[in-house]
Amino acid sequence: MVSLEENDYPAAAYAPDGKLWWDRVAGDGPKGATGNLPRAASWLRFNVQPGERFTTEQVRSALGITAEHFQRRLRELRGLGWKFDGMKDSPGLNAEYRMREYGWWPGADGEKPKTTEKIDSGTRRAVMDRDGSRCRICGVGAAEPYPDPPYDPARITIGHVVPASQGGGNSLDNLRCECSRCNETVRAESGSGESFENLLAGVRNLRGADKKTLLRWLKIQSRERTSLDQMYDRVRLAAPGERAKIISWLEDMIRE
Ligand SMILES: [Zn+2]
């Protein structure tokens, strides 16, 4: 285990913004370059030489990570081309690991290897059907314009509730429809710029039942679709002639 002073690191250890790769946090870089996995990878790259031993505790304390299952991280690193021996390979290692070969880290040349399995088309369709091709976070539907400028049409993708980079898999309950805007973490952190007073006034004006629903949605960071939302999508996606019939049926009903 080599311990280096911060200014002893080679230039490659620094991101273009001058920070050490492993000191970067969400918002410091593009998606995939921050987060505990890329931080652990870059820390190991510049602090543990091939042949040297390390423990998960050392990585965790260097990065200030407390609440996390590091065993899973190590598995993920293996998926990114890292090779190190553990107790299984060499019983003498006990809780230590021995570095054999570096794999991907954020400053490395080349794309991050795809470690996650592709979502198969059947699963993709099942998620789209279940969520009505609407963003589960903000509620916008596929190709519907956003309610604010530049009113561009929403693009719906399949996202992971627990990110794939944190070990989230492709099971139906870990997948959901997300629009490309909600998918961007940077935007999610900067806020919309609306004044807090304005926001609070809007929340205050909600009916009691709506306040409850809003609270529930905010807590789970997801919008459930009501049976009315689901009916709207079913009619919206019906053949144009059938949709027109439903519209005139509703008009007759409401007039009665
Ligand atoms: Zn959205």
From TrEMBL:
Protein name (Swiss-Prot/TrEMBL): HNH nuclease domain-containing protein
Tell me the InterPro entries matching this sequence: HNH, HNH_nuc
Give residue ranges for domain HNH nuclease.
Answer: 122-184
Q: Which residues form a coiled coil?
A: none
Name the Pfam families on file: HNH
SMART domains associated with the record: HNHc
